[in-house]
Amino acid sequence: MVSKIIQKYFRAGNLPHIWCPGCGHGILMRDLAIAIDNLKIDKDKVCIVSGIGCSSRIAGYMDFNTLHTTHGRAIAFATGVKLADPSMTVIVAAGDGDISAIGGNHLIHAARRNIDLTVVVFNNDIYGMTGGQFSPTTPMGDFATTAPYGNMDRHFDIAKLAEGAGATYTAKGSAFHVPQTIKLIQEGIAHKGFSLIDCMSDCPTYYGRKNKKGDPVKMLNWQKDNIKVGKLYQSIEPEWVEEYEKIIKANKK
Ligand SMILES: Cc1ncc(C[n+]2csc(CCOP(=O)(O)OP(=O)(O)O)c2C)c(N)n1
Ligand code: SF4
Fold first, then answer.
1. How far is the centre of ligand 2, averaged over its atoms, from the C-alpha of 183 (Å)?
2. Ligand 1 binding pocket includes 53 (Cβ within 6 Å)
3. What is the pTM of this model?
């Protein structure tokens, strides 16, 4: 099953990936591929858009239409793709820093518009790629390269933030909870409107080491015991691209 998924959905020439041993991003990338496979979507009708970060590398590894864009701007590019071809399934893969710090405004306004995008957050509570600086999801008191005495900021709950801004599907998954996370990503993709699945990943190299969380297995077991996964919210609201098309139709001379 896994080798079939790898052959079908990954660019062999770009593998092996650069992630550290034990990084949760690889598990979540596979979950995303399986979710797309389960939905039987034609791979030429899928576009994966990422920003910059360790997690954003998936746009290079996955064999779909892909855009590896600039830090924090994945949703802006994804909006353009969806408008240009509304028949496309457009998925944004983003780190917690990418989507909730520099890309925070794109997130809240895309959620407000209820545009039919699916955002999968690879949330490891830290900036992995740049060396372990704290991000908006780093828990208060935890250590980071830029918080040697403990992070004094309160943290964002990205799923709640998206729901508050207008997202019509939100859920929490994790690298540990594989079958549940695949199902939630599937539901998010199938949902018409703005969906966000906030998936706990693990960065043993920076977050784990700085916070003495133990090896990757211990970090995954922590997720098993502490993360509650599942759908948080779903509602049916007018979708932005469909509303846009109605306006064009109504005003055609
Ligand atoms: C405009 C801009 N600002 C800053 C950076 C540096 N930068 C690259 S990735 C990154 C953060 C990565 O963290 P996150 O998005 O959480 O993803 P992770 O690496 O943890 O998967 C930053 C600050 C950049 N590339 N571009
Ligand atoms: S630095 Fe952290 S997030 Fe980046 S690949 Fe390594 S373990 Fe994963």
1. 25
2. yes
3. 0.98
